[in-house]
């Protein structure tokens, strides 16, 4: 092994607002790190390796992000994500069977229908 995964980090103009969005939809807790940044900790029953750091940066995002999150929806439609502040970028169609959404700062992520139970 050459390296181990440490953190997932998202840049944001408003780290508190973006952190609040992600904490809200993932059922996590937004932690104020005291320096303008934030961290979304997962629910206590989940691994701390799933924390997401939200880093305040001065420059706006200017191109599509090359890394994104994939989420399993709790319901068949992303209605709750839209109510929380996400917006639809692309709906399922003949090429894809998931939704491409964007968070309040425009970072794209994919939302898949609920995971099939076996």
Automatic annotation (TrEMBL):
InterPro entries: Glyas_Bleomycin-R_OHBP_Dase (IPR029068), Glyoxalase_6 (IPR041581). It comes from Micromonospora craniellae. PANTHER family: CONSERVED PROTEIN, HYPOTHETICAL FUSION PROTEIN. PROSITE patterns: PROKAR_LIPOPROTEIN. This is VOC family protein. Residues 8-111 form the Glyoxalase-like domain. It comes from the Bacteria. Pfam families: Glyoxalase_6.
């Amino acid at each position: 092994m050459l390296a181990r995964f440490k953190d997932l980090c998202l840049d944001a103009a408003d780290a508190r607002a973006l952190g609040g969005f992600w904490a809200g939809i993932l059922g996590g807790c937004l932690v104020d790190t005291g320096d303008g940044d934030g961290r979304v900790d997962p629910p206590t029953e989940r691994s701390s390796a799933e924390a997401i750091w939200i880093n305040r940066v001065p420059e706006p995002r200017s191109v599509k992000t090359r890394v994104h999150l994939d989420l399993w929806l709790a319901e068949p439609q992303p209605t709750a994500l839209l109510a929380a502040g996400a917006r639809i970028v692309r709906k399922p169609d003949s090429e894809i069977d998931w939704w491409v959404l964007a968070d309040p700062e425009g970072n794209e992520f994919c939302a898949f229908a609920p995971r099939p139970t076996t």
